[in-house]
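Sample intake — Ribosomal RNA small subunit methyltransferase H
Collected from: Cellulomonas fimi
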Amino acid sequence: MDQHDLGDAATRHTPVLLQRCLDLLAPALAADGSVMVDSTLGMGGHTEGVLRAFPHVRVVGIDRDPQALALAGRRLAPFGDRFTGVHAVYDEIGEVLDGLGIDHVQGVLMDLGVSSLQLDERERGFSYAHDAPLDMRMDASRGQTAADVVNGYDERDLARVLRVYGEERFAARIARSVVRAREKAPLTRTGELVDLVRASIPAATRKTGGHPAKRTFQALRIEVNGELEVLERALPASVEALAVGGRIVVEAYHSLEDRLVKRTLAAGATSSAPPDLPVEPETHAPYLRLVTRGAEEADEAELARNPRAQSVRLRAAERIRPTPDHLRGPQPGRRAA
C-alpha cells in the first residue's frame, strides 16, 4: 500500500451509525481525563468522531491489521497524544490497558465484522466480487488463510464451517464440490471458489438472497480469523475494563455476533439470584444497565449515506457496579485488582 493510499482514510470510510454511537457514549465520556477504547479501529472513523466531539477524551485504538493501524494513525495524527494505536486482537484489551498503565476506561466501542479497508483491498481476498488470492486474514502476517481451510479441512468440517458460520443451506453440497475440485488441483483464487459455489446452489435459489457466495465467504472469514471465539472472550474482558459509569457500545453485522453480544449484555443486566429468593442479595444484583431497547438498526437516512450499514445491529450497556466475584471469570494477562 503506497503513501497515497495511506492518506485518504476519511474518503474511503464512512463510520456506521457514528452520531448514535457518540450520543450513547457521551454520558460516560463527560469527565476530563476520560479514556475510550476503540476495539476495532479500522480506518479510524469512529475514533476521529469521538476525538472531535469530546476534546478532553483520549482514545486507545486496537486493531489486528497493520495496514489499518498505519492508515488510521495517519488520519488521527493531528490529535497528537490523545490517540494511541496498538497492534493487537481486541480480546487482549486487558493486556493492552495494563501495558499502557490504565486500570479502567470510561468507554468501549466495537464495530465488528470486516472493515472497508479489507473489502476494498482486492488482494486481501475478502470480496467475492473480485478475483484474488484466497487469503481473508485480518492480520496478513500470521495464521491460516482461506486457502488453507478450503484445501485442508475434510468434507465434514468444511460443511460445518459453512453451515454454522455462514448459515448456508447448501453447505454439504458446496463442501462436496470443493473436495472434488481440490483433488485435481488446490483452490487458490476467490474466483475459483465463487464459480464452485454458484454451481453448487440450485438455479432457482440463486435468483434471490443476494450473491450466492456471500454466506460462504462470510463463513470462511469467520473461521480464518477466529472471529466468534475472539468476540466471546472480548465481550467479558471489555466489560471488566469498564469503570463504574462506563459504557460499552457494540455494532454487530450478522446474527451469530449479535447473539453473543445480546447474551453477554443481558446476563450482566439480569439478577443472578435464584428466582425463589424472597430478597435479592446485593452480590447477585445486576452490574450492567441496558441503554438500548433491543438491537437498533440503521434508518433510511443512514442507509442512504452508508450502504454498509444495511445489516448493523447496535446494542449498548452501562456499568452500574463492579461485577460480583462469583460471576467474574479469569482475566488472562490482567494485573490482580
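Post-analysis note: The longest helix spans residues 227-241.
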